[in-house]
From TrEMBL:
It comes from the Bacteria. Residues 302-323 are annotated as: Disordered. Keywords: DNA-binding. GO terms for biological process: regulation of DNA-templated transcription. This is DNA-binding CsgD family transcriptional regulator. GO terms for molecular function: DNA binding. Gene3D superfamilies: Winged helix-like DNA-binding domain superfamily/Winged helix DNA-binding domain (1.10.10.10). Pfam families: GerE. Residues 236-301 form the HTH luxR-type domain. InterPro entries: Sig_transdc_resp-reg_C-effctor, TrmB-like, Tscrpt_reg_LuxR_C, WH-like_DNA-bd_sf.
Amino acid sequence: MYSRAVRRGRVPRRDAEPVPCLLELALLHPDPDDMDWLVPTSPQEVMTRLLRGMYDEVSASQRRVGSAVEAVERYAGLGRQVRPAASAAEGPAIRVLDGLARIQAAMDEATQACTTEVLTVQPGGIRREAELSEGLHRALALRGRGVRMRDLYTHVARHGQGLLTYLELMGDAVEARTLDEVIDRLILFDRTVAFIPANSDRTMALELRHPALVAYLVTVFDRLWRLAIPLTAPLPDTGIEGISHREQSIAALLAEGHQDAVIAERLGISVRTCRAHIARLSETLGAASRTQLGVRIAQAGLDGPQHSTTPLTLPGQESPSVR
């Protein structure tokens, strides 16, 4: 439309109605002799205006670059005046990583620098294959360099085929153990750098390089590791017919007064699954209410790490203490 206006000198206003940007950008303007027609602004004037705008943008960018350089020089000068305890190569003792991209980049960097050992705690129950695939490239790179890995999961993770496939793929480079419940996610590289979540949805993380903090986390991991059961070994029997190891764990947490949602989160299962286990516990122990279930849990010795050696009398059997 603008080309036609330049060739002919003017165009009817109605022809330009589908392209109002021509008027908004001042490429066309009303003919003072006849308002039903539009005449074009000369291409030379348009080009001059365009170049002026580009020049202003470039000038503004140059000013921003200059301000950024001045700021960097100012803060660099402050850094020379106050030397940190750690060397520049070690970086800050605690660094906040905001966003998944920064977290992944920091993890990749730590993976590349790792030479001997990786320790991880993976809460949340059954690991989804997408989660396992996300870090597979790092795990394979570590295995290729002879790095040993030890992973802690909840007992629920034993039922995930994705984890079993992952461990089979990694071979003897990875050793896995499980617990009823574990701490929040933790990854330790060479006992020198650790990563932990910094918010509930794990879109932020802390990179820890302070020797005391890292040593403390290594101690926590080692103690959990000694309590954990190798993935290749079966879970211990509860000694009570009809009550599984998971239901024993749920019973102990119920005895502590925890709500269903809290129990489910700590054991890495859904609330629905948790309630199904509680229903089976109630049926097995002959409890008609949550209050009675608590009493039966205590009588059965399920309210602690070890259940009582006193045989449990189920409903229908005579007992002087269970009614």
